[in-house]
Amino acid sequence: MLDPQLLRQQLDDVAKQLSRRGFQLETKILSELEIQRKTLQADTQNLQSERNSRAKAIGKAKAQGEDIAPLLAEVGTLGDRLKKMEQQLADVQTSLENIQLTIPNIPHVSVPAGKDENDNVEIRKWGEPRQFDFAIKDHVALGEKLALLDFATAAKISGARFTVLNAGLARLQRGLTQFMLDTHSGEHGYTEVYVPYLVNADSLRGTGQLPKFEEDLFAEKTQGLYLIPTAEVPVTNILRDTIVSDDQLPIKYTAHTPCFRSEAGAYGKDTRGMIRQHQFEKVEMVQFIRASESYAALEILTSHAETILQKLNLPYRVMNLCTGDIGFTAAKTYDLEVWLPAQNTYREISSCSNFEAFQTRRMLARWRNPETGKPELLHTVNGSGLAVGRTLVAIMENYQQADGSIRIPEVLAPYMGGIEVLKK
RNA sequence: GGAGAGGUGGCAGAGUGGUCGAAUGCGGCGGUCUUGAAAACCGUUGAGGGUUAAACCUCCCAGGGUUCGAAUCCCUGCCUCUCCGCCA
Fold first, then answer.
1. Which CA distances in Å does A379 have to A204, A236, A252?
2. How far apart (Å, rounded) are the C-alpha atoms in residues A51 and A45?
């Protein structure tokens, strides 16, 4: 959510900045509602004030044993009028809020202008794609040949966009997850947390998935909960409705969770293999930070995700997403794209964003500034570190050998119980 | 699943229809005293809106209701705790 003050005072400027990302702000409706709100609120408060003073007078008179009947008569229909006006005000405020909840974040000045992913700007590249002297296979062919990847069985159990991992590959996924968590908690200073995978609507509203993106979620019917699309939701909501002290900052969490996405808008996209699944594993990093430090934190957090790719020796590039491609809640996003030889291209494996106060305003996540003594909104920065399923794909394809076997990256050796190669 | 208790400020905990946004204690902050510290004492200390500043308004889990007036009464929901049963 954007700052309501900003929407009141600099509506046209906000509209202009939002147009950079192709969003058209309904300035007319907003300013009309805002005028209504203002007058209604002032009138309502005046009536409330009158009610309060009259009620107090009655109380006082009664305490002194005076006859309160004439005072009661004076009050007349004030209560009813007030009730009506309060209702009107609430309606206007609800309308305003409903609009505000669907307005995306303002892109940071350093976000390049552009329409779609083709306009994203490459910031840097790391590693050399390996030259193969044999005909390479994609992860599906590799995995099925080794009997490690089983889409048919997953389809029988659940349907499309699921997979069953077998034996060494299942272990590799577990090892990868462990490796990522160990690196972030051990070397990057994050606190590991374990969180619920089912969350309520308030949490999803807090991080911005609701109300706009309900169709992307899996809903659980009996309790009205939702399966998390990312650990960002439960982890960020740890600080919802909380004021932390200055000496607790920055707060840095890492968590591993499965993620569940309906992929409603992705029919026919990435149908082969485990690139786009309804269920996948991800390790997430989340930072809560003072406003003045959030852009520096974004750079550092991005480097934490890069560290994982570097340790795994997987070539990648860093993209600065353009105004047309950044997510609804983000002010700036770097995507990390890993080299997939079978697709002969780079594919997204991590997304690192600064949300500024967009989420914390919805969540009321604040810190107390010791200089003013007042609570201020925190900024949130988060990123995948990394998407485990896609990392698995990248390892399979990049570490494949001529005989169809797959080497295990050296850093994962401690997690593999002596397995050095996945083979028949 | 059955039975009961309860949700109040950073924490603990009073308040059960009217000068209550809320006693008191602890904690925090400022000060006095002290060479310094502790102790003691004095003062101060919730959030949001609004205003140049004030006035003023809202918030005692959430949402409804009763009333001139609700933290306090009624209804619904959520959450927590205790006991019994079941159970990874």
1. 17, 11, 12
2. 10
- In chain A the domains, ranked by start, together with CATH numbers, are 26-100 (1.10.287.40), 117-422 (3.30.930.10)
**Structure confidence by residue, pLDDT tens digits, A144-189:** 999 999 999 999 999 999 999 999 999 999 999 999 999 999 999 9
Comparing CA positions, the residue from A252, A212, A225 lying closest to residue A362 is A212
Q: How far apart are CA A61 and CA A186, in angstroms?
A: 69
Distance in Å from B68's C1' to A53's CA comes to 10
Across chain A, which has 424 residues, the per-10-residue mean pLDDT values are 91 94 93 93 93 90 81 83 90 91 95 96 97 96 96 95 96 97 98 92 92 90 88 94 87 96 85 93 96 96 98 98 96 98 96 96 89 88 96 97 97 96 93
> Which residues of A are marked as active site?
261, 276, 348, 351, 390
Residue-wise DSSP of A270-316: S-STTSS-SEEEEEEEEEEE-GGGHHHHHHHHHHHHHHHHHHTT--E
| Cβ contacts, strand B, under 7 angstroms | A 5, 41, 44-46, 48-49, 51-56, 58-60, 62-63, 72, 75, 78-79, 90, 243, 366, 373-375
CB count in 10 Å sphere of residue A178? 15
Please report, rounded to whole angstroms, the spatial distance between the CA atom of protein residue A128 and the C1' atom of nucleotide B77. 59
Residue A305's CB: how many other CB atoms inside 10 A?
Answer: 27
Decide the pairing of beta strands A365-369 and A242-245: parallel
Which of chain B's bases lie under 7 Å from a protein CB? 10, 18-19, 47-50, 56-58, 64, 67-69
- Tell me how far apart the alpha carbons of residues A33 and A24 are, in angstroms, rounded to a whole number: 17
ipTM attached to this prediction: 0.86
Q: ω into residue A227 within 30 of 0, thus cis? A: no
Specify the residue for token string 């990312």.
A230
pLDDT tens digits along A83-122: 889 999 999 999 999 899 999 999 999 999 999 999 999 9
Distance (Å, rounded) from C-alpha A30 to C-alpha A103? 11
